[in-house]
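Because discrete structure vocabularies remain unfamiliar, we reproduce here a specimen of the format, pairing a chain with its fold in token form:
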Amino acid sequence: MRTPPLCIISDTFTAWTVEIANEIEIFHSVFLTGGAYGLAIYYSIWLNQPQLQNESEEFIVPDFPYELRIHRSQLANIALKATGNDSWSLFLKRELSQTLNSDGFLINTVEEFDQVGLTYFKSKLGHDSVWAVGPVSDYSLALKTRTASTDLSIQWLNKHEEKSVLYISFGSQNTISSTQMMELAIGLEKSGKNFIWVVRPPLGYDINGVSVRMVTGWVQRTDGS
């Protein structure tokens, strides 16, 4: 006889698992990989979209433990362009609202440093099943699993002075257009700074498509920096 599952731990993009957990009557928890404070602001912005309520440059973040004002310049472009009925707004409202039906939250943060954010989620859940479990990153394990390419990067970085190298990355879920990529490549070249650029294919192209190679001789001119 197979042992039934004890619980389900999901992220915010698989909030539908809350319903599954309820159906089979097991505990459900949401795991948030970032800090509670920043994610509390993220939740409040997308659930309430206060930036749509008025045209002021500053607005108060709703449902926060204290009066917090946000300037429009602090919002991501996707939040600035949101209408409330756009696909991203509808998706996030649905998913984030569903996570608040979970039995608890596991948050990659430290309780002593993040009381405001933790208080926010306890208030939204209506109970105290919010646990600070961070930091969950095991640096010693990262060292053991480090690849040869990582070692080469470290060796290259060690040849340069502290704070002399730029790091450019748009994360694992974002990318930019080919035009923006070319402009960034040109800007990096003109800066004369050493840099590490984590390059993803631009919007609309696959891995073999348009890339910084569109800038003729760019790699040679930047000397592989």
Q: What stands out?
A: The chain is about 35% helix and 15% strand. The longest helix spans residues 178-191. Residues 50 and 91 are 17 Å apart (CA to CA). The longest strand covers residues 27-32.
